[in-house]
Design a protein that fits this description.
about 280 residues, Glycerol uptake facilitator protein, mainly alpha, about 0% strand
Length: about 280
């Protein structure tokens, strides 16, 4: 059977209709599906780290490690799109429906807040279970050390760096969602998601929901002396990793960047190109 592929103008219409449906969801539905999406992205985060942590630890193989991690991470968005989930970063494209005046700003913000909180709950839940599972001792505790280094690096980013990394990340994430909307069958959706997500992870961009796993995971294990020693981080660097630095130094600028990258540079840009030009 020939697979139907939507043209970009048709994907705009699909995105608008998807936005209408998302905004109409009940609190319970959005919150539960938000938790599920947070869980899926956290699974992708921990699994990609497990695959590549030994490569991250060596400067000469760092890029190869990112490429390997990226090849696994796309599973998270595949689960969101195909199994069902509500992901804040993808939902930034509801802005297209707002521009079309089919959705109110208040309705969009309601969706964003409920889904964002759900994503946070799901992601932190997996971080907690990972910390309790003992899996961070993998590779003679190097997985824990690398997890701690990643968290410290992320909270140490300058505000504007985190913001721009967030823009570039969700530009690619929403293009992955966009391509999945254009495919009719599951295999087409999988391929549409895989390559942009592989590129985003390999590039080292910042995704607010993934960071809801990466940074809490580091916070939950920062007191482990073996991980701290193997990480090579100074006591001052580890002390800088706090819940406050997580929210202020990373989550806020990355979230703002993600909104611009997905909502403006994908949702609004394609809406304007195919609806107004």
């Amino acid at each position: 059977m020939e697979q139907k592929v939507l043209k970009p103008a048709e994907i705009v219409e699909y995105t608008i209709q998807a936005g209408i449906g998302k905004v109409a969801g009940s609190f319970q539905k959005l919150f539960i599906l938000g938790i599920m999406a947070g869980v899926f992205i956290a699974f992708a985060s921990e699994g990609s780290n497990m695959a590549a942590f030994n490569l991250f630890a060596v400067p000469e193989s760092y890029g190869l490690g990112k490429a390997l991690a990226g090849s696994i991470f796309g599973t998270g968005l595949m689960l969101v799109v195909l199994a069902g989930g509500e992901l804040f970063t993808g939902n930034t494209m509801i802005l297209a429906a707002v521009c079309e005046k089919k959705v109110t700003v208040a309705g969009m913000l309601r969706n964003w807040v409920i889904v964002y909180i759900g994503n946070f709950v799901g992601s932190v839940f997996i971080a907690y279970m990972m910390a309790e599972s003992g899996l961070f001792t993998s590779g003679a505790s190097m997985l824990g050390a690398v997890t701690l280094k990643i968290a410290v690096y992320k909270v140490g980013l300058p505000f504007m760096s985190a913001f721009f990394l967030g823009i570039m990340c969700n530009w690619l994430v929403c293009l992955a969602v966009w391509l999945s909307y254009g495919a009719e069958h599951m295999i087409g959706k999988i391929f549409g998601i895989f390559f942009p997500i592989w590129l985003f992870i390999t590039s080292g961009f910042e995704h607010c929901v993934a960071n809801m796993y990466y940074i809490p995971a580091g916070l939950l294990i920062k007191g482990n002396e073996a991980y701290a020693s193997l990480s090579g981080l100074s006591a001052e660097a580890i002390a800088s990793l706090t819940w406050g630095s997580f929210f202020i130094n990373n989550l806020i600028p990355v979230t703002l960047g993600n909104i611009v990258g997905g909502g403006v540079f994908v949702g609004m840009a394609y809406w304007y190109s195919y609806k107004k030009c």
